[in-house]
Structures are given as structure tokens and as C-alpha cells.
Amino acid sequence: MPVTTEDVVRWITRVAAVLHENRGYLTQLDSPIGDADHGINLDRGFQAVMDKLPTVANMDIGSILKMVGTTLVSTVGGAAGPLYGTAFLRAGMATSGKNELYEADVVSMLEAALEGIKARGKAQPGEKTMLDALTPAIAAMKEVEQQHGSMAQLLQRGSDAAETGMKATIPLRATKGRASYLGARSIGHQDPGATSSWLILKSLAETCAQKSR
Predict the structure, then answer these.
(1) Residue 186 confidence (pLDDT) above 70
(2) Domain count, the chain
(3) Reported pTM
(4) Which residues, other chains included, contact 213 with Cβ-Cβ below 8 Å and sequence gap of 6+?
(5) What span, in angstroms and rounded, lies between the C-alpha atoms of 144 and 157?
(6) Residue 51: Cβ-neighbour burial (10 angstroms; 0-12, 13-18, 19+)
(7) Could you give the CA distance from residue 101 to residue 113 in angstroms, rounded to a whole number?
(8) Are 101 and 61 within 8 A, CB to CB?
(9) Is residue 53 part of a domain?
(10) Which helix (H) or strand (E) holds 100?
(11) How distant is the alpha carbon of residue 28 from its chain centre?
(12) CATH at residue 15
């Protein structure tokens, strides 16, 4: 069952609601190792996205995702704006002109988003960043796609792998971004970017799981 334009609109709507609900939690995670604004910034960015969503809701998937990207770049402060903005812009480029996404399309879309984050953040997995959630998630999705699994299986496996990767950031020492200034004191804290990445992928899995019931 493909992911349609309507599903993408429902996904973005769900992400905005989930990030709003977790605004305090994400900011609390960011407090000891960042600027204590991750949840606040993402909530503001996705509320701005929701204001614009009706204007692109009838366009192709690529156009919707590009709108999300440009809005996040212009409204979200700190590192999250450029990183997530680039991710959604690259995802939009990978899905340009499409109104339906099949398993291989979803993997390609998320791979493009991941490469955008890597290029923008100059980061690699193991440095206590959102890549530690996204990299294993996309690897898990690729595996399901190669085994000809369903869309629901692909997205759930990706969400589960992102959650595992997010939890695995706790013992890591940060070597990128504001958290890297803390050195060994960054150990023992869950990365807020990895957490918001998991929430975004989890929202996509939940959106598609609801449709297949």
C-alpha cells in the first residue's frame, strides 16, 4: 500500500502535534547538553508549517516536503533549523512530482534526507547526533524493502531501529555541536536531535499503520 499525498499531509500534521506534546521533554533533554531550546524551536517551526500546509495540500509530495524544509530553515533557530530544513528539502527533491510512494521510494526519500543532514552537519554516526537514530533506521528499512516486506513493516522496523539508536546515544561522548564543548560531561545524556528524529519517523509509521487497519 503506497504512501499518498494525503498520507504525507496527515504525517506532517501528526509530527506537528507530537512535537508540540513533546516540546517540554525535548527541551529538558537539551538543557544539560545544549541551549535548552530544541523542543521550543521545533514546535515553533512545525506550527509555522501547519499555517502553510493548506496552501500545498493538493500539490505533489515533493512540493509539500520542500515547503516543510524552507519553512523550517526560516523559522527554527539553532542547529535544528538548517539540519531538518535540509533533510526535508532533499526529501522533497527525491519525491518531486510524485503523488504515491512505494517502499523503494520511501527508502530513497529518507536516504536523501540523511545525506543532506550529513553534508550540512559534517557529522557521522557515533558522534551523539540525530544520525545515530536515522542511520540505523534507514538501514533497517532498506533490509525490509530488499526482503519485499510491506510498507507498514518497513516503517515500523525503521521506527524501532531509530528508537534503539536514540537510546544508544546515552553512553556516547558528543563530538559535534554545542554538546561537544562538555567533553566527558556529555556522557549519560540522551541526544535531543536523535529523539526528535525518532518521533518524526514514529509519526510516519503510526500514520501508515492507521491507514492499513
Answers:
(1) no
(2) 1
(3) 0.94
(4) none
(5) 8
(6) exposed
(7) 15
(8) yes
(9) yes
(10) strand 100-101
(11) 19
(12) 1.25.40.340
Q: Residue ranges of the alpha helices (H) in the chain? A: 5-21, 23-30, 38-56, 61-75, 80-94, 103-121, 131-146, 151-167, 192-212
pLDDT in tens, 3-46: 999 999 999 999 999 999 999 999 999 887 677 889 999 999 99
Taking only the tens place, the pLDDT of each residue in 112-163 is 999 999 999 888 888 889 999 999 999 999 999 999 999 999 999 999 999 9
Please, are residues 76 and 46 in contact by the beta-carbon 8 Å criterion?
A: no
Query: Which domain, by its residues, includes 123?
Result: 3-208
- Cell numbers for 16, please give them: 506537528
C-alpha cell at 116: 543532506
Grid coordinates representing 19? 512535537
The three three-digit cell numbers of residue 210, written as one number: 492507521
Please report whether residue 213 resides in a domain: no
58: amino acid identity, one letter: N
Q: Which amino acid is at 139?
A: A
